[in-house]
Amino acid sequence: GEDVEQSLFLSVREGDSSVINCTYTDSSSTYLYWYKQEPGAGLQLLTYIFSNMDMKQDQRLTVLLNKKDKHLSLRIADTQTGDSAIYFCAEFSRSNDYKLSFGAGTTVTVRA
Amino acid sequence: GAVVSQHPSRVICKSGTSVKIECRSLDFQATTMFWYRQFPKQSLMLMATSNEGSKATYEQGVEKDKFLINHASLTLSTLTVTSAHPEDSSFYICSARDFGHGTDTQYFGPGTRLTVL
After folding, report:
1. Helix H segments across chain B?
2. Residues B108, A14: Cα–Cα separation, whole Å
3. What is the pLDDT of residues B32-88, one digit of tens each?
4. Residue among A51, A20, A53, A14 nearest A36 (CA)
5. Distance between CA atoms of B23 and B111, rounded to whole angstroms?
6. Nearest by CB to A98, which of B97, B107, B111?
């Protein structure tokens, strides 16, 4: 099966780092993604990581992948008010016919 | 990143009418597009996979005669909600798969808010 789980809420102070965690079950996952959704909008691809990588950094974003534990995290450095949104973790595996499996989304609230 | 557009962004219609939503990949060709539905404060629910030049593949529980999908070109897929009813009111989001040149990524459109009165 393809189960992706995330914590539902995260509150962080402006300027601090945010860490959003995600676990998945499909060991044949080839890509793992982080999407951001602002109110009333579609999903914006933030970053993705190949399953054979441990870490990927892109400006303020750092993705860590622990394939053994099937654990994915997204760290946002120097969190800003514009980072307030829902963040979705998603996995892609060919065993799922090229379909993405999404987590429930983590609502990140940045407080001043 | 790649850009996917949807039109219209918002539509209000009367019960019993049909509504067509367009999804376009603007700067890449997409042999595969996906249609999702999202309820308030929930994750995305995949409705169907749209393949260029062939019939769409619908997820279990999604009525193919109600949600007609056409993927006539490599940059356009349409979703028609036929004989819409208030329970069809939702946020519909499409995505387009960009595959090849070292990537396999879905890019999402901005969504269409459908309200059926």
Report:
1. none
2. 28
3. 999 999 998 889 999 999 988 889 999 999 999 999 999 989 999 999 999 999 999
4. A20
5. 9
6. B97
Q: Report the b/e string of B82-102 with b at 16+ CB within 10 A.
A: eebeeebbbbbbbbbbbeeee
Question: Both tokens of residue A7?
Answer: 């914590």
Neighbours of B114 (CB within 10 A): 21
**What is the C-alpha separation between B72 and A73, in angstroms, rounded?**
38
At A83-105, the pLDDT tens digits run 999 999 999 887 777 789 999 99
| Residue A14, helix vs strand vs coil | coil
- CA A7/CA A18 separation, integer angstroms: 13
Residues of B in contact with A43 (CB under 8 A): 44, 93, 95, 108
Asked if residue A45 lies in contact with residue A63, where contact means CB atoms within 8 angstroms, the answer is no
DSSP string covering B88-113, please? G-EEEEEEEEEEETTEEEEEE---EE
How many other CB atoms are found less than 10 A from the CB of residue A58?
10
Label the pairing between strands A71-76 and A85-92: unpaired
What's the pLDDT at B4?
96
Partners of B51 in beta bridges? B32
Structure token pair of residue A23: 């676990």
Q: Do B43 and A98 touch (CB under 8 A)?
A: no
CB B49 within 8 A of CB B34: yes
Interface check A43 vs B, CB under 8 A: yes
**Number of residue pairs across A and B with CB atoms under 8 Å?**
52
